[in-house]
């Protein structure tokens, strides 16, 4: 049985593979991935419409673009390494839950940009990222205008329910009663899902001045309701 010595390992073609990699091309690919990742970072920050902005998640988009580019440049010169890398990446799982579908879009965008930079299609990655950024800015800003809100009203007198319904229907484009709660001590709570421009939200002041209303709260509603 043939044994492998340390000298055999030393005389392998590792150094040849290292010299076959163009340092300049690698630097250009990584710098391009960084710049496109920075562009994704700015677009995400500008279009973010959630409750809590995560700076670390945004930074990870830049790193993901660069890391993907680095992986692609490493496996592009070796078929066996590429197969092993695919097998290794197949066991990777995201442990952090991603609630906003737009976050998945940005993750996929960063990976694709890094992949294109890694194989040398830098111009395609740049043009595609610019177009995607423009589309996101246009449509996400439009979505903010039509964003639904939750209107939570706490009151004591059931006789004002018709008045509340009249005020809400008069000042919003669309409203839906999500829930009605009856609590001890003759306390009631209504939760409406409403759609109204931010400039027309002054009606909540009118609701709060009604006799018998304890509080009226308007909060942004991203589709995940939690009591």
From TrEMBL:
The chain crosses the membrane at residues 20-44, 56-86, 106-139. SUPFAM superfamilies: MetI-like. It comes from the Bacteria. Keywords: Membrane, Transmembrane, Transmembrane helix. Pfam families: DUF4956. It is found in: Membrane. It is a multi-pass membrane protein. GO terms for cellular component: membrane. The keyword Disulfide bond does not apply. Its main location: membrane. This is DUF4956 domain-containing protein. It comes from Evansella caseinilytica. The lineage of its organism: Bacteria, Bacillati, Bacillota, Bacilli, Bacillales.
């Amino acid at each position: 049985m043939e044994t492998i010595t340390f000298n055999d390992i030393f005389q392998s073609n590792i150094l040849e593979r290292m010299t076959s990699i163009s340092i300049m091309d690698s630097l250009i690919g990584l710098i391009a991935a960084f710049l496109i990742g920075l562009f994704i970072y700015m677009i995400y920050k500008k279009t973010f419409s959630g409750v809590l902005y995560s700076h670390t998640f945004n930074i990870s988009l830049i790193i993901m673009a660069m890391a993907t580019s680095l992986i692609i440049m490493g496996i592009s010169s070796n078929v066996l390494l590429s197969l092993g890398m695919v097998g290794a990446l197949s066991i990777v799982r995201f442990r952090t839950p991603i609630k906003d579908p737009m976050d998945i879009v940005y993750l996929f965008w960063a990976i694709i940009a890094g992949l294109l930079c890694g194989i040398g299609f830098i111009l395609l990655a740049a043009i595609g990222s610019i177009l995607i950024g423009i589309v996101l800015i246009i449509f996400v800003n439009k979505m903010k205008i039509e964003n639904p809100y939750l209107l939570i009203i706490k009151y004591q007198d059931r006789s004002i329910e018709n008045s509340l319904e009249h005020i809400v229907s008069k000042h919003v484009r669309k409203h839906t009663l999500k829930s009605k709660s009856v609590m001890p001590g003759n306390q009631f709570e209504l939760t409406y899902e409403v759609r109204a421009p931010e400039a027309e939200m002054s009606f909540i002041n009118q609701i709060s001045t009604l006799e018998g209303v304890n509080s009226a709260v308007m909060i942004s509603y991203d589709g995940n309701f939690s009591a």
